[in-house]
Amino acid sequence: MTEPAPDFANLPAPAEGILVTLFITVREVTRSRDFYSRILGGTVVLDENPCIVRLSNSWIIMNPGGPPTPDKPGISVVDYQPGDTTSTFLNLRVADIHAYYEEWKAKGAEFLTPPIDRQAEIRCYMRDPDGYLIEVGQSTGLLQGKLAAKRPEDLPG
How many structural domains is the chain composed of? Predict the structure, then answer.
């Protein structure tokens, strides 16, 4: 079986300026590629080494971890250890959160909760196959100037 040819027209390679992509370290490239393409609807640009999936107007780049390299001496890329803490997550903004929630759930996405109305937005979270947290949100009240409520710890005094 031959591997699909790279989709050179959709590589994240700007002709000028910059373009933002997200790199994630994955344990099984095929499993993660399937999640970001089949469940979330992304387009596979490059199958592997690294795997690149175009997701709407952005790209997810995936590869297993590895030891230091000459361009990042002393730094190892390691697998994410899923748990109850995170310091970064993918944020997907959608036009109709309930439609995406139902579609992705039917395809096998595992959400922490159904969408919850937070006044400024409706949002929910899911995890990818490696445990990375993904926020799915739809701006609602924010479009009319309604901001999220401040948490008590963020208030002065």
Answer: 2
Q: Judge whether 8 lies within some domain.
A: no
Mean pLDDT across 19-38: 96
- 117 within a domain of the structure (yes/no): yes
Q: In whole angstroms, what is the distance from residue 31 CA to residue 151 CA? A: 37
In the chain, how many H helices and how many E strands?
2, 9
Task: Supply the pTM of this predicted model.
Answer: 0.85
Residue 41, class by beta-carbon neighbours within 10 Å (0-12 exposed, 13-18 middle, 19+ buried)?
Answer: middle
- Full domain range(s) for residue 114: 88-149
Q: Flag whether 6 is in a domain.
A: no
Report, as an integer, the average pLDDT of 26-42.
Answer: 97
Residues sharing a CB contact under 8 Å with residue 154, sequence separation 6 or more, in sequence order: none
* Structural contact between residues 54 and 32, judged by C-beta atoms closer than 8 angstroms: no
3-state helix, strand, coil in the chain (%, to 5): 20, 30, 50
Cβ contacts of residue 44 below 8 Å, gap of 6+? Answer: 4, 7, 33, 37, 51, 52, 53
